[in-house]
Amino acid sequence: METQLESAPAPDVRIVLVGTQHPGNIGSAARAMKTMGLSRLVLVAPEKAPDRDTQAMAAGADDLVEAAPVFATLAEAVADCRWVLGCTARSRRIQLEPLHPRDAARRALLAAANGPVALVFGRERTGLDNDELQLCHAAVHIPSDPAFSSLNLAAAVQVLAYELRCAVLDAAGADTQPTLAMRTAPPGEGSASHAELEGLFGQLAETLEQIDFHKGRAPESAMRKLRRLYLRANLDSADIRLLRGVLADAQRMARLAAAMGSVPAKIG
Ligand code: SAH
User: Fold this and answer.
1) Other CB atoms within 10 A of residue 93 CB
2) Which of 20, 25, 88 is the pocket-test mutation for ligand 1 (most atoms within 8 Å of CB)?
3) What mean pLDDT is predicted for residues 220-240?
4) Is residue 89 lining ligand 1, measured as CB closer than 6 Å?
5) Fewest CB within 10 A of the end CB: N or C in the chain?
């Protein structure tokens, strides 16, 4: 799997940020891209040039910002593109039927085999204007809550970049289906609470000390394995009570044995 992931080719998809108002968002967008294997960032008339905020938010993705061409208009930035997708927070105000990001990413990947594709993102306050949307062949809307539909610019870039990444990995034959850790049962109705489990683990750690289970070894490794084992078992509250009862008896016996002087007195 690792080899497939590494060899997945970066698609010819550019991320175009139009009229960005906060230089920090340019850095965050670059970081979002780089984590997903995208490198072509393009700026159109940013309100402020990239600055120290950009660099701070890029957190190591500054190379994308440094390499980013800056254009005066969107038309110039996408002149050589085969397919131009406008990302918009407002699904109803646009003429074009908006694509779901997953669908958009899959189609973008196919289109990118024949020429550059652009994903266009608008201004933080006002998005893309109508003239700019006119230049797009299709719209993409992240199905956010209609009552609060606007994502932070870089968060929107991240969603699209992630979908593209999944599309690339799927195309490379990598298994991208989410999997539940195979031996871990999903918690169901009646599963013990976090606090109940931690109570069990605390008493277990104490008991292991008292029965001298570790014999000089570091206790962490055994506890890690025992935690995993009990988490796999998907315990409910009654299971916890039973196990803690067993531990309580073991602790009582250890106390007795210590009192009789047959084991080193480890009991506080
Ligand atoms: N207030 C602006 C929102 C701008 S958010 C408006 O109403 O349009 C900045 C940019 O992030 C948007 O132009 C768009 O490109 C992207 N974006 C934010 N939320 C989005 C969403 N739900 N779907 C698609 N793109 C989104």
Assistant:
1) 11
2) 88
3) 94
4) yes
5) C
Name residue, tokens 């204007």: 129
Note whether 206 and 236 are within 8 A (CB). Answer: no
Regarding the beta carbon of 142 and ligand 1, being less than 6 Å apart is answered: yes
User: How many folded domains does the chain comprise?
Assistant: 2
Nearest CA to ligand 1 atom 21: 89
Distance from Cα 123 to the centre of ligand 1, integer Å: 8
Q: What's the gap in Å between 126 CA and the centre of ligand 1?
A: 8
- What is the torsion angle, in degrees rounded to the nearest 10, for the CA atoms of residue 113, residue 177, residue 85 and residue 69? -70
Same domain, 87 and 151: yes
Task: Please state the pTM of the whole predicted model.
Answer: 0.82
**E strand residue ranges, the chain:** 13-18, 40-44, 70-71, 83-87, 98-99, 117-121, 138-140
Whole domain around residue 74: which residue ranges? 13-173
